[in-house]
Amino acid sequence: MARVQRYADGSRVPGWDQAVDLTKEPAPVPEPATTPVPDELRATIEAYMAKYPDRRSAVIPALAAAQRHYGWCSPEAMDQVAAVMRLTPAYVESIATFYDMFENEPSPLHDIYVCTNISCSLRGADELFEHFVETLGDDAQFNVRSFECLGACDIAPMASVDGVYVGPLELDDVPRIANDARDGRPVLPSKQIANRAVADPGAAVPVPDPDAMAAGPLVPPERGRGEAAAPEDEL
Ligand code: FES
């Protein structure tokens, strides 16, 4: 059975309990004059800041925008978020390194998050995750990670493929998912959560929420991410 990676101290996050260097000068808020920010990214971050009485409330969507722009939360991206928001890089980094969906390393083209939490685990997620790793672990295009509950327990075992939820998954679905992602097709349309039948006929219809649409998944569009497909795309 595939094990969730842990470091020597038993933690999944290296260094979280190491003492900070209190003798070190704190990094200042980056100077706008020396921290160029792409216009589009700056405008997006400022739009988020305008929504909240305390601008710090916009750090998560601002980081998400930076990740969509660059593909990951690089040190430069975090500096740019800090410069626009007038925060220290440490404040921004503390949030970017806390939440699992922010990538702090250059990320492969496709993100596959396999939920291995309790509901999915009871329905075979550990074997599924192991199969994903065996099939795609050596493929540089794919970032395969086990994940805590992704909030879609009703389609357990499930995975998020470039932000698109699919499930319930079987082992045979893994190569199909890989091929769909590689070829830029909608991933496994028949098992996308967006295409599931629901009792409320209006529930599955996307609500045109401009904010949600502007936010989008935490991935840049140019990375060829999978998209939710209409039911008629089903093979
Ligand atoms: S346990 Fe897998 S989505 Fe909730």
Features:
235 residues, alpha+beta, Arc Repressor Mutant, subunit A, Glutaredoxin, four-stranded mixed beta sheet, 4 strands, 32% helix, 8% strand, binds FE2/S2 (inorganic) cluster
Could you outline the blueprint of secondary structure elements for this entry?
Elements: H1 39-49, H2 59-70, H3 75-85, H4 89-96, E1 110-115, H5 118-122, H6 125-136, E2 142-147, E3 159-161, E4 164-166, H7 173-183, H8 210-215
Parallel strand pairs: 1-2
Antiparallel strand pairs: 1-3, 3-4
Bound molecules: FE2/S2 (inorganic) cluster.
Bound molecules: FE2/S2 (inorganic) cluster
The backbone outline, from C-alpha atoms, is globular
Which CATH class of the domain at 110-195?
Alpha Beta
**Which regions are unreliable across 5 or more consecutive residues at pLDDT < 50?**
207-214, 224-228, 230-235
Query: Which value, in Å, is the CA radius of gyration?
Result: 19 Å
Would you identify the CATH architecture of the domain at 110-195? 3-Layer(aba) Sandwich
Largest sheet: 4 strands, mixed
- Assign a percent range to the helix content: 25-40%
Question: Tally the helices: what do you get?
Answer: 8
How do the strands line up in the largest sheet?
2-1-3-4
Give the amount of beta strand, in percent.
Answer: 5-15%
What is the average of the pLDDT values? Answer: 85
Question: CATH-wise, what's the superfamily of the domain at 110-195?
Answer: Glutaredoxin
The run of helices and strands is: HHHHEHHEEEHH
Fold-level CATH name of the domain at 110-195: Glutaredoxin
Please give the number of β-strands: 4
